[in-house]
Each structure stands twice: as structure tokens, then as C-alpha cells.
């Protein structure tokens, strides 16, 4: 396992695109080359260039022979749209070992977006915070990727999870099937996150959920604290005299139920710890992306 995938190492790199490239390069170096395939591996036919087509898929040898621009059709067909949905509600400010959930989320999303771009896919972004929704339509251009990284850097978590009234852009976007990568701490008060995912799944999208947890949060290690505070509601729970040794097993049971519930909707679920390297997430993303190509 490469230390280039360690979240602390990545957080020390202040340049987000460079950190994403570092993570993906380290990940790919440890994989067999055939596992990481770019677009257009199986050629089918040429077609004439149309304004708006990605210039990377131009066949320059055909241009040299015919003095006309042609696109390799198979390369366009194997590309897909991938949108990254970031939960940036206030609870994502939870921090352990110097790593906050929102920082882990932004570096994870940047790495996955870089890998998607490397494979010729269009990457989009949706940020849910302060009760509102910010969206960027999926595109393939390098300039668009620079804007996507910038928006990830600018995320300011706050408020509660975005209300359904703001979901219009998610439901009325491109009607083609997409891969949606949702990064969240899955803190919900009345099933609002699950309801959103079920609706998106019903629209035919493939969904990959990364559920972020801290190791102390997972084990209930509250040593040194007199109380804990809900980051979204402000409610405080006094810990003095409380010794719930069943906390870890209860949380595990809840997460198992959540996983089962999502899988029944064909929504892929993966739990990630803040202290965990990114290789597992990158591998899951790559496998899910390749499933959509078939």
C-alpha cells in the first residue's frame, strides 16, 4: 500500500489537483496496467467532427490522409457522465487526527474526478450545504476540470442537509444514465438522504455511496470529553455517568441495515474511515465505472 494514498500525506499537499494526481498515480502504479483502461479501446467506426466534440478524440492520422476531421466513434461511446455529490452540511466538519470529513471528501472527490478525466469521462459536481444546492454539469474539457477543483476547494460546510425543494437541478439534469458518486457522513434526521438516493436510483442512475466515519466516532471513544454536541442542531449530550458499551455494536448494526437497505435499491455502499487510505475507494470507483461501460 502506497503512503501516497494516506489522507494525511494528501492533506499536506495544498494544491488539490496535484494531490489528486499524486493519489491516482500512486494507486495506478500498484495495479496491473490492464485494470486501468482508457476510452476507445475497442474501435468501431469514424464519424465527421461536430462542433462541441472533445478534441482529444480526433484522429490525426485520418486528418493527415484526408485533410478532414474525424472522431473515433467508439471512444465517444465508451465515455460516461459522472457526477460527484458532496454532502457539505455542518456535521461534515467533524475532525479526527487532524482530518475533517469535508477535507477527506474534497480530496477523495478530486482524486476520483482526476481518474474519471484520465479515462475520458465527463465529470460534474453537486454540493449540498446551507440548505441549498450548487451544481456543475458534467463536461470533459481540461478547463472544466480546473473549475471543478476550484469549487471543491471553495466548499464551506454549514447548515443542515439540503431540503427536497432544492433538488430540481438533480432531477432535471441530463436524462442519460449517469454514475453518481455520493460522499457523505450519512447524518440524517428523518430519512432525507435515503429518500434522495432512492429517487435518484429510480431515475436509472448508477449510485456509489461513500459513508465517512472517524475511528473514534465508530468505536465510541469519547475519552476526555464531558459532552458531545450535534453539529447541525446544536443539541448537547452530557457524557458524565454514561457508559454504553453497546455503542459500537449498535452503530455497526445500524450501518449493516443501511447497507442492506441501499443494496436492495441497487445502490452500492462503502464505509470509509477518515484514517483510511484512498486505495479502497479508488478501486471501488473504478470497478463501478467499468460496469457501466459493459
TrEMBL record:
UniProt name for this protein: DUF58 domain-containing protein
Species the sequence originates in: Chitinophaga eiseniae
Source organism phylogeny: Bacteria, Pseudomonadati, Bacteroidota, Chitinophagia, Chitinophagales
InterPro entries named among the record's database cross-references: DUF58, vWFA_dom_sf
Domain DUF58, residue spans: 45-240
Signal peptide: none
A Pfam family matched in the record: DUF58
Family matches, as Gene3D superfamilies: von Willebrand factor, type A domain
Amino acid at each position: 500500500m502506497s503512503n501516497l494514498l494516506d489522507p494525511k500525506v494528501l492533506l499536506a499537499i495544498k494544491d488539490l489537483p496535484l494531490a489528486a494526481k499524486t493519489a491516482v498515480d500512486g494507486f495506478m502504479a500498484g495495479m496491473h496496467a490492464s485494470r486501468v483502461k482508457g476510452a476507445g479501446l475497442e474501435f468501431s467506426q469514424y464519424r465527421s467532427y461536430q462542433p462541441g466534440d472533445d478534441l482529444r478524440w480526433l484522429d490525426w492520422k485520418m486528418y493527415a490522409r484526408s485533410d478532414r476531421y474525424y472522431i473515433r466513434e467508439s471512444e465517444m461511446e465508451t465515455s460516461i457522465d459522472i457526477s460527484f455529490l458532496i454532502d457539505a452540511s455542518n456535521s461534515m466538519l467533524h475532525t479526527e487526527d487532524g482530518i475533517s470529513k469535508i477535507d477527506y471528501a474534497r480530496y477523495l472527490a478530486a482524486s476520483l474526478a482526476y481518474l474519471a478525466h484520465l479515462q475520458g469521462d465527463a465529470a460534474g459536481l453537486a454540493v449540498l450545504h446551507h440548505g441549498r444546492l450548487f451544481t456543475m454539469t458534467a463536461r470533459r474539457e481540461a478547463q472544466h476540470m480546473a473549475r471543478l477543483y476550484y469549487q471543491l476547494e471553495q466548499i464551506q460546510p454549514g447548515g443542515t442537509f439540503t431540503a427536497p425543494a432544492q433538488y430540481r437541478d438533480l432531477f432535471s439534469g441530463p436524462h442519460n444514465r449517469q454514475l453518481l458518486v455520493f460522499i457523505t457522513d450519512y447524518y440524517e434526521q428523518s430519512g432525507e438522504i435515503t429518500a434522495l438516493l432512492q429517487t435518484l436510483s429510480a431515475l436509472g442512475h448508477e449510485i456509489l455511496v461513500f459513508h465517512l466515519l472517524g475511528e473514534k466516532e465508530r468505536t465510541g471513544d469519547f475519552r476526555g470529553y464531558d459532552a458531545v454536541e450535534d453539529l447541525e442542531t446544536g443539541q448537547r449530550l452530557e457524557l458524565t455517568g454514561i457508559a454504553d458499551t453497546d455503542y459500537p455494536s449498535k452503530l455497526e448494526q445500524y450501518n449493516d441495515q443501511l447497507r442492506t437497505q441501499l443494496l436492495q435499491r441497487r445502490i452500492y455502499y462503502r464505509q470509509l474511515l477518515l484514517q483510511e487510505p484512498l486505495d479502497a475507494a479508488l478501486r471501488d470507483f473504478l470497478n463501478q465505472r467499468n460496469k457501466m461501460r459493459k
